[in-house]
Amino acid sequence: MFTRATRQPSKLRLALAGPSGSGKTYTALAIATALSEKVALIDTEYGSSALYADRFVFDRCVLETFSPEGYVAAIHAAEQAGYGVIIIDSLSHAWMGRGGMLEQVDAATSGGKNSRLAWKDATPAHNALVDAMVRSPVHIIATLRAKTEYALDHDDKGKVITRRVGLASVQKEGLEYEFDLCGELDLEHRLTLSKSRAPDLAGKVIASPGADLAATLKVWLEASGGLGSTSKLTAAVSTAVATTEDKAVRERGRATIRAAKTAEQLDALVPTIKKLPEGDRRVVRPEWGKRKTELAKSMRAAGTRR
Per CATH, which fold does 13-210 belong to? Predict the structure, then answer.
């Protein structure tokens, strides 16, 4: 009846949630195109994915209405066409969009059906969508809109206050259980992995995730064998996190250079730049030269005005 559990190669189930402007579509495409040469995108955002067609190679299907049945049909069509990754952008519309779950229930209750029966009739279609994602033989990346969530709390004086507690995905509660990894993107394009079945990735914060994260996920997805098979994944995660930290260091360096108001302030940064690792110096030096030129032009313009 029981057999020894072993890791088997698997397909990605990734949910990316975030507010408008956090880079959900871009991030999904960056990860997907690093995982496979054949990417299908189910577009519910009125064709906005085409804005990235100059950066990524992918095919898309634009949905006009957002019933769960429409999503399922698109998923199966992508599978049959041989795509390696399916991006659902976004899954939130199956819940709150035109023809989605909430609209179906509202229409039923407006027609005289009580709420309980309306939900009972609509739920099987949503369950079928979840089943199509979970059972798909290809990688699935779903984006989710997010809204700010608040809760009532008390301050140190006992006064009732409203406190922001985070972001809530716009979808049916509990949907995160169906994904192997769930992450939240912020407006700085940082991905915080709030759920991960890959223990080495749990809780990690990754700046501008893309090919680096895809490479790490690929190691985990293709892993097989027993308890000794995780070392490669650990090494890959360390590389991805180190890359994220490098990006943060370089961005702080660029920001410091851009903040220099005079040539003297800029020159004072040279000793610090020289101490940076060679890779960081190569990134930061052009920013220093650009700022130097800008300040020189500004000084010449000021002299002309005088």
Answer: Rossmann fold (3.40.50)
